[in-house]
Design goal:
Number of strands: 0
Largest sheet: none
Number of helices: 3
Shape: elongated
Strand content: under 5%
Radius of gyration: 22 Å
Low-confidence stretches: none
């Protein structure tokens, strides 16, 4: 679970404000340590992949044609 609570634990929250506070704290903590990834797979890479896939799978030919 996103908040680190095990699903089989009893409900530790007494009201919705406590849930909102816990989720806001998680969001702040996560955003402080999160690093964006470097996306290197381009549209041209996808088109090339779909063309190669179509050579081996006739059903994929429609995908390659649409790309």
């Amino acid at each position: 679970m996103a908040t680190g609570q095990r699903p089989w634990c009893p409900d530790p929250f007494f009201d919705t404000a406590a849930i909102a506070d816990r989720l806001a704290a998680f969001e702040d903590r996560y955003n402080a340590v999160a690093d964006p990834f470097d996306w290197t797979f381009t549209r041209d890479d996808l088109k090339d992949f779909l063309k190669r896939l179509a050579e081996h799978d006739p059903a994929a030919a429609a995908l390659a044609a649409a790309a």
